[in-house]
Structures are given as C-alpha cells and as structure tokens.
Amino acid sequence: MNSYRPGRHISHQFDNELEDVRNRVLVMGGMVEDLLQKAVVPLLDSNEEAEKLVVHDEKINQTEVEIDEFCGQILARRQPTARDLRLVIAVGKAISDLERIGDEAKMIARKSTESKVKESRPYYGQLRLLVQRVQGMLNQALDAFARMDAESAVAVARQDKNIDDSYGELLQSLIDDMEDSPKKVRRSVELMWVTRSLERIGDHAANICEHVVYVVKGKNVSHLSLDEMDDEVNKF
Amino acid sequence: MLVNDISVDRIDGDDQSSINAESVTPKHVLDRENRDTVGTVTVADPRITCRNVDVYYGDKHAIHDVSVDLGRNEVLAMIGPSGCGKSTFLRCLNRMNDTIDICRVTGQIELDGQDIYDKSIDVVPLRSQVGMVFQKPNPFPKSIYENVAWGPRVHGLARSKADLNEIVETSLLKAGLWNEVKDRLDKPGTSLSGGQQQRLCIARTIAVSPEVILMDEPCSALDPIATAKIEDLIDELRQQYSIAIVTHSMQQAARVSQRTAYFHMGDLIEVGETAAIFTNPKHPLTEDYITGRFG
Lengths: 236, 295
Description:
The structure holds two protein chains of two kinds. By secondary structure, chain A is mainly alpha-helical. Chain A contains nine helices and no strands. In chain A, helix 1 runs antiparallel to helix 6, helix 4 packs antiparallel against helix 8 and helix 7 packs antiparallel against helix 8. Chain B is an alpha/beta fold.
C-alpha cells in the first residue's frame, strides 16, 4: 500500500475516532512547538526571562496520557488492522517522542535562564542556526505526519544531519573555549546541556518521520539508514 | 521570527483534501481481466495443490482461475465478503460440489499429487481423507458413541469392538470432548450443547483418519467460550492435519491461521502469511475489506 487513506469505513464512528486521534497528536505537536519557542527566547535574547513553562509541560504530559488512553480504547473496541492498526501504533510512539521533546524544551528553558548561559553572546550565531534548524525540522516533521506524506518524511529526516553538524561545530567551539580558559568551563558545560537538548529534539523529530513511513508503507524503518529509508518509500 | 506553526493549520481544510486525494483506487484493481493473485500461492510442502481452478453454476462463473496450495500442518484461512466464492472453493477440495447438478469444476486439484477430479477417484474415501465440518453442528440422530463410530465402521478402520472403542475414545480426546461425555456415550448427540455438538462433529471427522479438515464457518453458531475452545482445538489439530477454514470473523482468521487467502467476487485477490495480511496487506481490496472500509 502506497498511501494512507483515512475515512471510508463502514462504521463512521470509527472514521471519526481515527481522525480524532490524529488531530489530537497535531494539537499536542502545536503545544510542544509553542513550548520550545518560549524556551529558547532567553537563550537568543539575553534581556528576556524565560516564562514559567512548568504549566505548559504538565499540560503536554496530560495530553500524552489522554491520547495514550484513547489509543487503548480504539485497540480494545475496534481491533484495527493494517494501516489503521499502524496509525494507532504510530500515534502511541509519536506522542512519546513529543512528550520527550517537551521535557527537553523544559530543560532548555531552565538552563537558559541561568546566568552563566546568558553569557552565550560569542555563540549567538551558532546557537541561532541550531535553534532554527531544530524548530524547522520539528515543524516539518509534524506537517509530514499531518499529511501522512512518506516522501516528505524522509526528506525531513535527512535534516537531522544538518542539526548534528551544527551541534558538532558548537560543541567544538565550547571545547576550544574550555581549553583556552578554565573560567569559561562552567558556562560551556551549561551551554553543552542546552545544545545537547536541542540535538535530541532533532532525533525525536526524525523518529516522528519514521513513524510516518511506518504508517504509509507498513515498514519499520527505525534502524535503517536514510538511503535505505528512501528505497523503502520508493518501492512499488 | 522562528518557525512556529500551530497544529490547527495542519488539520483544517486543505490538508484533509490533500490526504483524500491519495485515495484513488488504482485502475488495475477494477480490471478483472488482469487481476492476478498478490502474494505467494505455493508452499514448500503442499498437501493440496490447486491450479487454475474455475467453478461454474450453470452460466454463472463463480470462481475465476484460482491457484493456491494448502501446506502440511498449516491452517489456511479463507476470508472475504458474502458471495465471494470462498465456501464454493472450499467445497471443491473434497468434491462436495459434485452434489450440485449444475456445478462444474475445471482446473486441477491434487491431494498428495493425485488429481482428486480424476475419473478413477472414488469420492467416498476422498471425503474421509478430506473431512468437513459445517457451519451448523449436524450430529446424526444417534448416540454420541455412534456419531463417532459410524465412519470408522463404514470405512472398515476397526477390526474389533475394542479397536472401535479406542478410535472413539481417541477421537473424542483429540476433539477435547472426552472428559465431558465419557460417562454418557449412549446419550443422543443432539443432547449436547452447540459447542459440544460442533466438537462431536470434529471428532466424527477425525475418527476416519483424514489428512485434511475443511471447516466452513465452524464457530458462527457458537458463543465466545465455545468458539475459544474450537479455536484452541484447531491449533492442536494442526500438529497432525492440514486445515482450511472459511470464516467471516477476521479476528478468528488472525488468531487461528498461519496463512490467509482473501477472496473477492470469485477471485483470489491475495494470499500470504496471516501476520502480514493483517498488518500490511499488499492489495487495496484486501486492505479495504480487513479494515472495514467500503469496497
């Protein structure tokens, strides 16, 4: 099967439930994007304070639990098969990735407000590039999920390489600074935590792309290379 | 400004239509002339081999060019909507369709390499080799013992009363019914519950030492407990026999079979490993059926 085709069930209620669970994931995705946006504000603008983001994170956690329970109800009541089953399984995994992105965003917010991290001006350009890449990838991964577009999902997953490159370069700069001046060690370590969280968000966004390929193509590509993923998507 | 689309943009209007645009049924699916079976129809060690089987009821072409194997020690589930031909095809496997005057079967069906439609074949021993269990339990109006003993007696499988007793006991044990009826073997078969009657019919089929058991919706008249017992029994019987089962319950097909064949309007659309059929079917018609969509 080459495409995900929602709807058309003899049971309209089942159609509604599958559509509902998909939409709930996208709403949760929006909440996570919003949290990440707020979390990086003090990192990129040293005059800003991080908002109180704990409430946001709790809401994301609660949403994950609700969607997870909803998936359980669908499995128990509808016994979905084929692409419907794959969708419910993928939703279960995607919300777990989104919840972890929320945790990473909360970590970034906490670290960003610490005074040492605020001294990040020398890395402003690198940090801004990394943040843009991460937010862009997350946004496009959620778009691929919304459209169940496997080809786009693979293209988005490829962006993780750019994020890893940005992360690697920033990491090297921080290591160089630590070697030059022991006074900068604490600031650099704190910034490493932040950049590590950003890099992890890229990994979770890539996971969401893999879930899209699983739903559309019926193939678990979690442990395949990007080229192998491409081959799977272009089969048939 | 950094990218921050909120999900509502994704789930409204245009996105939905873009998804639905992918749902166009491929043209070849509707083209019956080119509707080849998807999947592997052969198995390494077949018990029954069917090739290019067509069935006609008078002018009506009920089964179209079906080829599929039934392997040893496997359960092959046949699924599909009402009237798709799955029961008709099942009945070809022990020539039950011979009893219908207007029915004509062409193609080749071999049991252990022997063409069962060859003129030299006697259908009576054939039907003991390829036994059948029907939708509705149909015990003879005789005692429980006689229901099971009748077949072996007719086919001369028992040399003595002791032999016959042993066959009856073994068959009832294999059918998971012995402990429930051993103290009332002289009672009528019809006095048993529906589930017990169906297991009695299975014992009756087993008693004549078949190689293959055909089951035509064997649980459709049973409650969930009796159904679970029959399904458990099917799994045990598989160790010794080959089983082809027609069922309307896709959950049952998924539970009991190793391979599944999907029929649609007389065509065998897809056959494959049951796990693959129910998680990632290859043909859109199979997918539509098992996911409960409009065909």
